[in-house]
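Subject: sequence -> structure tokens, single chain

Hey, anyone have a minute? Need the predicted structure for the following. Not urgent.
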Amino acid sequence: MVMTRTTIELPEEVLDRVQSIANERGMTVSEVFTEVLDQVTKSDDDPVRPVPLSFASGASGHRDTARRMGEEPYAPRP
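Reply:
Had a minute. Here:
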């Protein structure tokens, strides 16, 4: 894997917590950041990338709407 060096700014208390986690796990600070950022960027519930408001403008609250369209006749839900 090709690694790229980068610089970030963060509060000292955050860095202290990351260093503590790294020590507990026998990892480097870089490995902790890589692991966490990898999880965050692969997550479907990514807090860093909020869902645009336009996506929810017609939300029915039902996850099966598209599948159901071909299976049953249209009838508005109450």
